[in-house]
Amino acid sequence: HGEDLFVTFSGSSVGVLYCVGLLWAKRGSDLLDPCSWKELPYPILTKESIPGQFGPGHNCFIKDPDRQEDDLVVLHVKEFDFDDPEDEDIMIAKNPRNSIIRRVHWNRLGYPVLDMQEHQDIPEPLRKIQGTVELF
């Protein structure tokens, strides 16, 4: 994206601590040189990132086949009700992983935002605006 190459990776075990981290390097840098890479010091997806889902794990980025300008992320999660009194380990064991697709947003610094909720997104009619500025 832009001048950066991003790599996401999953870490921990398939449980409530399973999360996704982020590495990036500048376009044109030596990708085999560890010094070319930077790592975000915190996960970009955790059990709190997507309401009702936890354990975001391995994933990939794709282009939306209908809107090539949109980036998508495909990943797996487990559905989970953290208010359920049932033991967490039992809930983890009995709930299968589901594959989901989410739209990738990009923040003002050019980094991917994978946990934006629908109510935070800009409605379609407001995504492209046009205006005129008059100077006096």
From TrEMBL:
Instruction: Output the Gene Ontology terms for molecular function.
Output: hydrolase activity
* Positions of transmembrane segments: 6-25
Which InterPro entries does this entry report, sorted A to Z?
Glyco_hydro_beta-prop_sf (IPR023296)
Give the record's keywords alphabetically. Answer: Hydrolase, Membrane, Signal, Transmembrane, Transmembrane helix
Instruction: Return the PANTHER family for the record.
Output: GLYCOSYL HYDROLASE, HYDROLASE, FAMILY 43, PUTATIVE (AFU_ORTHOLOGUE AFUA_3G01660)-RELATED
Name of protein:
Uncharacterized protein
State the species of origin: Candidatus Blautia avicola
